[in-house]
Structure formats: C-alpha cells, structure tokens
Amino acid sequence: MLDLRFIRENREVVEKALRDRASKLTLDELFSLDESRRKILVEIEGLRAEKNKANDQITALLKEKKPAVSVISSMKVIAERIDKTEAGLRALDDQLSSILFIIPNIPHSSVPVGEPDKAKIVRSWGKPQEFDFKPLSHIDIAQRLDIIDFNRASKISGSNFILYKGQGAQLERALINFMLDLHTKKHGYTEVFPPFLVNRASMTGTGQLPKMEDDMYKLKDDDLFLIPTAEVPLTNIYRDEILEEKNLPICFTGYSACFRREAGSYGKDTKGLMRVHQFNKIEMVKFAKPESSYEELEKLVNDAEDVLQALGICYRVVALATQDLSFAASKCYDLEAFAACVGKWLEVSSCSNFESFQARRANIKFKRTTAEGRRSTEYVHTLNGSGVALARTVIAILENYQQKDGSVLIPEVLRPYLNGQEKIS
Predict the structure, then answer these.
(1) Residues 30, 34, 38, CA angle at the centre, nearest 5°?
(2) N or C: which end of the chain has fewer CB within 10 A?
(3) Which of 339, 334, 275, 284 is nearest to 311 (CA)?
(4) Which of 80, 131, 132, 104 is nearest to 18 (CA)?
(5) What is the CATH number of domain 4-100?
(6) Which residues pair with 252 in a beta bridge?
(7) How many Å apart are CA 196 and CA 191, to the nearest integer?
(8) All CATH 3.30.930.10 domain ranges in the chain, comma separated
(9) What share of the chain is helix, strand, coil (3-state, %, to 5)?
C-alpha cells in the first residue's frame, strides 16, 4: 500500500506509475475524499476546542457556586456533534482505505516501461537441448512411464489437478528436499513449514486481497483462504511486529502446496503440467533494510538460479516490464526454463522486491539506531522469490532429460535423494 501523504505530495509520480502499468484507476476520487477528510478534521478540532472551553467554564462556574446548566447543555450538544462528525470521519477513512488498497505499487526506475514484450532478457545459462530423435512431450513421457495419472487426478478433483505416482512422486519429493537443503545449507535461509490456510488479514497484507480474490480458493464457513504461495504465511510471520535493525536481513525458505483457481486463464495453454490448480513450490522470503533491498533482490535471483544450474536446466533471466509486474511488486525478475518438446521458455520462478508496499499493509517495521544513538522506526522492505516452482520444473526435467529408449535421466544432484537411481524407466 502506498502512503496517503506520499500520494498527496507526489500525485504526478503515482499517476505516471498507473499509466506505465496500463491501469484504469484514477486518483480523482481519492483526492476528493482526502480533501473532505481534512475539512472534517479541522471541524472536529474546532468542536473539541469549543468543548474544552465549555468544560473550563463549567469548572469555573461550579467553583464559584454559580448555575452551569445552560453551559452543560451546550457542551452536550457539542459532544453529540463531535460523535456524529467522528462517525462521518470513520466512514470516510473506510472509503479512503478501500481505494488505497487497490492502488498498485510504483515500478522501480530501472523497470522497462510498456507491455510484456518490452521485457529485457538480462542473461541466460546453458543451451537448449538437442536430440537425434523426435522428442516427446512431458505428457506422453509421464503416461508412458506411468509416473503421472492425469485422468484419475481429474476423476478425483477435476481438470488441471495432478496425481503423481511411483517414481513421479519420488521425483517430486526429491526436488522438494534438494531445494530446501540447497537454500538452508548453502544460501543460509531458515526453513519454515507454514500453514496452508491463512486469514483475510494475511492475504491482504501481501496484496492478494482485495484485488485478486476471484483467483483464490476460499473456505465457505470460515474466513480462511488456501494459500496461492508460501509468500503469504512467510511474510505474515512478522505482521504487526517491530524488528531489530541488527537482525536484518531475515531470510526464510519453506515448502508449500500452492492453490490457484486460475480464474483468468481461459484460453491459455492448460495441458499437462503447464497450468494447474495445485502445485508444489519452494519459496524464499526476505525482510531487508531499504538501502540494501535491491542488493538482496540480486542475491535472491542468484539463489533461484543456483537451483536450475544444479539441475542442469537451460534458463534465462528476464526483467519484467511495467505492464507485466504483479500488483505489489516494484521490480521483478522471471526465471524461465527451456522445455525441449514444448519449445517454450516456461516461468519457473519470479523474484520480486516490494519495497515497503507489503510492509505498510502488514505493519512490519524495524528499529533503526542513528549515529547519534537516537532510535526511530520505519517500514522494512520485503522480497520473495520461487526457489523454484515444481510443476514446470518437472516439465523441463522430463523433456530435456528424455532418452531415445523412452527413459528419463535423473539430474545428478537428485540421485542421492533417490537412493542413487540414475534414470526413470
């Protein structure tokens, strides 16, 4: 969430950000409500001054043993006016908040401006796999090896759900354990196993609500949501808390299942593992000081790249353009893995810096000590990244590591997690 005072003092900056994002939002209603609110605040201040003056008069009259009935009566009228005006102020505050909660974050100055095709390829690693035979799609591979049962998953839950089985389930578990070990042992993250259900305040804090409620799975009888990513519970660990500067940055990683209705995915490629309602993901979340958050973003991207390099998967790093940024992000890099048969670059990780946007919504601050020893509080910067998402990573492994005899080689780093097994056949 953007600070109202910042918007008031930097209207042109915010309006440019909205244009760069191709947002249809305008600030007219916000500024109209803000002006009304400030007038009401002046009115309340005047009424309180009148009430204090009347109270002093009553005290003086009673001290002098003089009648104070008329002054008391007038003070009651003033008190009623204050109550009524404050109720109006609360209603205005609610209206202002509802608008502030749907204004997206301001893109960082380094973000390419424009439509998704304005994204910038920052770097790439590895070469797309070439074959001396006609490669199969991950769907055909999975069915021939009997490691994913798409039909029975649909029978159990519906379309776009996954049922891993046998060596497929073992591969999925190996990937989860490998990534958690990499991020905790090499990259220094603290592992967290979070709840998969969170409350409305948590979803609002990270920015999924109210804007994207239609994409979320919500419980009917409780105001709880299945998490779309572990970013939500991990970031909300410190909601309404004040951290110590000396402890920053704080880095968490965690596994979770992720649940997304994909309400806006009609017409997109939804075959196989491309776009599913439930998938597994390892998440990385950071709480950083404002002056070092972009340095931490680069480290975050490198940590996600380590996963793909260790797996031997060709990928590229893409700096997203303004119109492709998520609602809450100031800057985002996507990591895209190449899938040989699909012949596409598949997003397997998004690494974002939200600056103070989420922290302001979730009220996460830290105490800073100045050189003079004075203490002050300010909002932390939050960051997160996939480290990495598994469904599309599995696509890349199956399609890039397939062999002519129909088997699939297992990346070397995963073999210790599979009792030394070298291939799926």
Answers:
(1) 175
(2) C
(3) 339
(4) 104
(5) 1.10.287.40
(6) 190, 285
(7) 15
(8) 116-424
(9) 45, 20, 35
CA distance 56 to 129: 85
Nearest to 338, CA basis, from 362, 315, 355: 315
Q: Report the distance separating Cα 127 and Cα 180, nearest Å.
A: 26
Please list the rounded mean pLDDT of every run of 10 residues in the chain (425 residues).
97 98 97 96 95 92 90 92 95 96 97 98 96 95 97 96 97 98 98 98 96 93 97 98 97 98 65 94 98 98 98 98 98 96 93 98 95 91 97 96 97 98 97
Q: Which long-range contacts (CB under 8 A, 24 or more apart) does 133-137 make?
A: 133/404, 135/340, 135/341, 135/399, 135/402, 136/341, 136/399, 136/402, 136/406, 137/272, 137/341, 137/342, 137/399
Residue 93 CB-half CA count within 13 A? 8
116-424 — its CATH code?
Answer: 3.30.930.10
Beta strands in 260-353 (DSSP E): 278-288, 315-319, 331-339, 344-353
Chain region(s) in the chain for CATH 1.10.287.40: 4-100
pTM score, two decimals?
0.93
User: Do 21 and 323 contact (CB within 8 A), yes or no?
Assistant: yes
Nearest to 159 by CA among 168, 151, 167, 149: 151
φ, ψ (nearest 5 deg) of residue 84: -65, -40
